[in-house]
């Protein structure tokens, strides 16, 4: 727990997240049938459980990671630390993050990192695609994910081995997704609050805002934007595979004397920029 300054009664926080939709996965592609025509895949088929990236899907994050790396270096003009990498525990998001991380690390002439990234990413259920009916959105077991990704990903926030949220006969509602989005933003803002009030932080660490990388899904991201920053989706804009958005999040907190705790008064998305596309707002 961060040390707090008792004289602080209110705190305003700001952070930047680079939010990416996963690359093209198996369930995103048309399937060829016997007569040679192509049809949409049947997502109720267990073959698509936690579908991985296609070859094209593996190429996309390499390109997106290069664009993001160059963008970060241009914006900050100095060596920078990525404070956190948070990812949906579905395989396609883990693979997308892996591809992007290969490009994010950038070195100067002395082989010193210009962009320093955490050794481990954090998997959060709140970032998942809508639960239910579609097997592509059913998570692999935690034990399987640990075998595949243990050295890269912290899965401690997954509460069960098997996916207890996914139901074969019921799809999650938009309201349900919005609740998960609110929970995730509160998690991010709480961690930023702790950073801001930590009296043990180095005096040389003057960057009050944190910088995080987040990988999620199309429906989740579109729900986030419609709820908090709808202008970015004007004109029927959709969120496409491996698009990267720079998202500014601000929050206001008050310290209550009665319970001796911090309460969040407001969370806002104050800016969204598509960095590997053509729409900026």
Which key features would you list for this structure?
single chain; 281 residues; alpha/beta; Rossmann fold; seven-stranded mixed β-sheet; 11 strands; globular; phosphatase activity; Phosphoglycerate mutase; PGM_Phosphatase
What does this structure look like?
Helix content is about 30%, strand content about 20%. It is globular and about 70 Å long. β7, α3 and β8 form a beta-alpha-beta unit. It has one domain: Phosphoglycerate mutase-like (Rossmann fold), CATH 3.40.50. The two termini are about 35 Å apart. By secondary structure, it is α/β, with parallel strands linked by helices. The longest helix has 24 residues.
Q: What string gives the helices and strands in order?
A: EEEHEEHEEHEHEHEE
CATH architecture: 3-Layer(aba) Sandwich
Poorly predicted spans: none
Q: Average pLDDT, to the nearest integer?
A: 88
Strand content: 15-25%
Tell me the strand order in the biggest sheet: 8-7-5-9-1-10-11
Number of domains: 1
Give the helix level as a range of percent. Answer: 25-40%
Gross morphology is: globular
CATH superfamily: Phosphoglycerate mutase-like
Organism: Chaetoceros tenuissimus
GO molecular function: phosphatase activity
InterPro entries: His_Pase_superF_clade-1 (IPR013078), His_PPase_superfam (IPR029033), PGM_Phosphatase (IPR050275)
Pfam families: His_Phos_1
């Amino acid at each position: 727990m961060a040390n707090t300054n008792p004289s602080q009664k209110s705190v305003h926080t700001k952070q930047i997240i680079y939010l990416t939709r996963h690359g093209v996965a198996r369930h995103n592609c048309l399937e060829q049938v016997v007569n040679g025509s192509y049809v949409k895949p049947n997502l109720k088929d267990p073959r698509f459980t936690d579908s991985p990236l296609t070859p094209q899907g593996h190429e996309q994050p390499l390109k997106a990671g290069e664009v993001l790396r160059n963008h970060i270096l241009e914006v900050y003009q100095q060596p920078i630390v990525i404070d956190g990498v948070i990812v949906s525990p579905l395989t396609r998001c883990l693979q997308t993050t892996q591809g992007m991380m290969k490009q994010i690390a950038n070195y100067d002439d002395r082989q010193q990192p210009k962009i320093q990234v955490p050794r481990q990413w954090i998997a959060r259920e709140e970032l998942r695609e809508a639960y239910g009916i579609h097997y592509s959105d059913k998570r692999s077991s935690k034990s399987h994910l640990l075998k595949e990704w243990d050295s890269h990903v912290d899965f401690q926030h997954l509460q069960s081995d098997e996916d207890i949220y996914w139901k074969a006969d019921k799809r999650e509602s938009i309201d349900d997704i919005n609740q998960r989005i609110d929970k995730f933003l509160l998690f991010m803002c709480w961690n930023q609050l702790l950073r801001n009030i930590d009296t043990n932080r180095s005096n040389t660490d003057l960057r009050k805002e944190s910088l995080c990388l987040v990988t999620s899904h199309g429906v989740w991201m579109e729900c986030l934007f419609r709820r908090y920053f709808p202008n970015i989706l004007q004109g029927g804009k959709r969120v496409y595979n491996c698009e990267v958005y720079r998202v500014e999040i601000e929050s206001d907190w008050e310290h209550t004397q009665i319970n001796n705790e911090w309460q969040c008064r407001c969370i806002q998305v104050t800016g969204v920029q598509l960095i590997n596309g053509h729409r900026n707002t």
